[in-house]
Amino acid sequence: MFRAAFRAAFRAGGTAAGGRVRGHGRTVRHGPVRPPARSSRMRPRTLTVSAAPQGAPVTADPLLPTLITRAEAAAHARPEPCPCGAPVTLAHRPDATVVRHAHTVAKAHAPRTDATGLALRLTTAARLSGVLLPPLTRAPAVLHDRLVTFWPYGTPVDPNAPDAAPWEAAATLLARLHRSPAPPALPPMRGPAKAARAVARLRATAPGHPAARAVLRAWAGLPAWARDEAPMPDSRTVCHGDLHLGQLVRHPAPDGPWQLIDVDDLGTGVPAWDLGRPAAWYACGLLAPEEWSRFLTAYRTAGGPAVPAEGDPWPALDVPARALTVQTAALAVAKATAADRPLDETEQAVVDACDRMSGIPPEPAAGMPGEPAA
């Protein structure tokens, strides 16, 4: 059960949370809940639209045949020999379709993706090679009204080996990313925008659900920037925007150094947002204290600027952790409603965290606005 929960952590895609949770824990000033004492075997899981499993056969879809052809062409354009095999679908969701041909990956981005913003993100990934996986080309192609990018294949984190999860590598890469100079005109990081979309989905599809009030109340208590209703207070720091374990690969495959993938949400903003999902998992009791400590210690050791080098990190992490907890709960309620089923134990636990944290105002980090909605 714990391994299944861990495997689900690789499909975060803007959501988080889960695992078997008993729902106890107390509200404190620094986050949704202080993690309760429990077994170190507890693993995070996530709640999201399921992607096709690694290695699944490609299925029929109007976009897929052209995307497959382009992936094959990109693979055969490279100088090294192509170990040809059947193309596979790595993900197939409304917001992304990803196929692999040998050592080349083609990704069709979400409909209406901004071409200029994506090009700037691709250029940034190319410049920060070694931290971010560099694209094969810096200019996206257009297929069936979708922007398509091409990438080298990297070996992902093994979802069947939870004890080998690269928390230190993830934290070190984030610290290096956050210390990198922001390229001119790089768009804002899209984390708050994704959280706002999750809340909008809740309001559109499940406004009368019994859990909606607690989630919306917690959302209303966040500062405007975290709700994507005002500019972020930091416009100079490069952020990933959607950090979870599924965003790391080893390149060159199979055992090269870890690198971050997925530039869709890359941009400038509050670096603590990138630590917010692991912080939320920890605060909700879904990430073992020792794993959180490994992650936080590695980030600090690498000189990451999101939290103080020593002392209490929670004033910096509080707002992002709350926002990502709300995002998780909003999507959980919306999906349960769409499936016409009750919330399961883990979904209810995240909603309960929203209910608890709404009773205490978030504490803004030094120099950041913290006024909640009126």
As residue ranges, the low-confidence spans are 1-58
Rg, Cα atoms, Å: 20 Å
The DSSP helix count reads 10
* CATH superfamily annotation of the largest domain: Aminoglycoside phosphotransferase (APH), C-terminal lobe
The overall pLDDT average reads 83
Count all strands and give the number: 11
Per CATH, which architecture of the largest domain?
A: Alpha-Beta Complex
Protein name: Aminoglycoside phosphotransferase family protein
Pfam family, one: APH
InterPro entries: Aminoglycoside_PTrfase, Kinase-like_dom_sf
Task: Tell me what the structure shows.
This protein is 36% helix and 11% strand. With 374 residues, the protein is an alpha+beta fold. It folds into 2 domains: 2-48 and 158-357, Aminoglycoside phosphotransferase (APH), C-terminal lobe (Aminoglycoside 3'-phosphotransferase, Chain: A, domain 2, Alpha-Beta Complex), CATH 3.90.1200.10; 56-154, Phosphorylase Kinase, domain 1 (2-Layer Sandwich), CATH 3.30.200. It has a 6-stranded antiparallel sheet with strand order 1-2-3-4-6-5, covered by helices on one side. It has a 3-stranded antiparallel sheet with strand order 7-9-10, covered by helices on one side. Strands 8-11 form a two-stranded antiparallel sheet. The longest helix has 25 residues, at 314-338.
Condensed summary:
The chain contains ten helices and eleven strands. The chain is an alpha+beta fold and 374 residues long. This is Aminoglycoside phosphotransferase family protein.
Structural features:
374 residues; Phosphorylase Kinase, domain 1; six-stranded antiparallel β-sheet; 36% helix; three-stranded antiparallel β-sheet; Aminoglycoside phosphotransferase family protein; 10 helices; alpha+beta; Aminoglycoside_PTrfase; Aminoglycoside 3'-phosphotransferase, Chain: A, domain 2
